[in-house]
Design brief:
Elements: H1 3-12, H2 16-24, E1 29-33, H3 37-46, E2 50-53, H4 57-60, H5 72-85, E3 90-94, H6 104-116, E4 122-124, H7 132-140, E5 145-150, H8 156-159, H9 169-184, E6 189-193, H10 197-206, E7 211-214, E8 222-225, H11 227-230, H12 247-263
Parallel strand pairs: 1-2, 1-8, 2-3, 3-4, 4-5, 5-6, 6-7, 7-8
Length: 275
């Protein structure tokens, strides 16, 4: 690779700093989850700004009921595949349940593994004020951190399920305090999940760092979707998500056609056979 080409790629690579500039210029950015090389490559080439290797892999790929059973080793494995595919997008590795809650030291160790072994360029963790020290320590280890407040899936048992957060005055104040704590701890961005649109707007206006909404309204600085919701690959799609394709139906039709052609000896044909 020539020096000119390498320099050009560096200039166009999305970074934590470039997202901060996007916020200042009021230029929204996009984030999608990705868990493997092929889809990460497709999304990267399509111009998606941030690829989140989410612990949502537990639901979408592993078939679990929640994200809690996902391990750090599994996150490193999936992050490594996505990092190989991304030449432009910022790759963020999710820190799974149990990898950072015990102590800030555990958090630093887990984040270092996601960077060194997984190739992540940043990490994401859930929690506000309670995780401020952990965020600060990880940032102190030269690792960019994306926060996540509001509805935090790793806390579904405490929250009593996937419930919208911040509807009461007290709940609203709590989410705002969490977002401010994440910013003060040194995070470069924060995901706002499952909060009223007005609260998403208020937090976005209060924070100097970018907000990324998922079920938080149009006023956030960026928006994120789970790729299976985007592509129509989920059995159920949450109300805040929009399917932009129906790949599930297309894949089902292709499989049915393949099975039919095999049954009737139409496949493989002469053009698919060696002589």
């Amino acid at each position: 690779m020539s020096t000119v080409k390498a320099s050009s790629q560096r200039e166009h690579r999305v970074t934590a700093k470039s997202l901060a500039r996007r916020k200042r210029r009021a230029e929204p950015f996009s984030m999608l989850t990705a868990y493997d090389f092929p889809f990460a490559q497709i999304f990267d080439q399509a111009g998606i700004d941030v690829l989140l290797v989410g612990d949502s892999v537990g639901n979408t790929v592993q078939g679990g009921n929640d994200t809690l059973a996902v391990t750090l080793d599994e996150m490193i494995y999936h992050t490594r595949m996505v990092a190989r595919a991304a030449s432009r997008a910022l790759v963020v590795g999710d820190m799974p349940f149990g990898s950072y809650q015990v102590s800030p030291e555990d958090g630093v160790r887990s984040a270092l593994r996601l960077m060194k072994e997984g190739g992540a360029q940043a990490v994401k963790l859930e929690g506000g004020r309670s995780m401020a020290e952990t965020i600060s320590r990880i940032v102190g280890a030269e690792i960019p951190v994306m926060g996540h407040v509001g509805l935090t899936p790793q806390a579904i048992h405490r929250m009593g399920g996937h419930r919208i957060q911040g509807r009461s005055d007290a709940g609203r104040a709590r989410v705002i305090e969490d977002a401010l704590a994440v910013q003060e701890a040194g995070a470069f961005a924060v995901v706002l999940e499952g909060v009223p649109e007005s609260l998403g707007r208020e937090i976005t206006e209060k924070l100097a760092i970018p907000t990324i909404g998922i079920g938080a309204g149009v006023h956030c600085d960026g928006q994120v979707l789970v790729m299976h919701d985007l592509l129509g690959l989920s059995d159920w799609t949450p109300s805040f998500a929009k399917p932009f394709a129906n790949l599930g139906a297309a894949a089902s039709q292709a499989a049915r056609q393949f099975a039919d052609e095999v049954t009737h000896r139409k496949f493989p044909g002469e053009e698919h056979s060696f002589r």
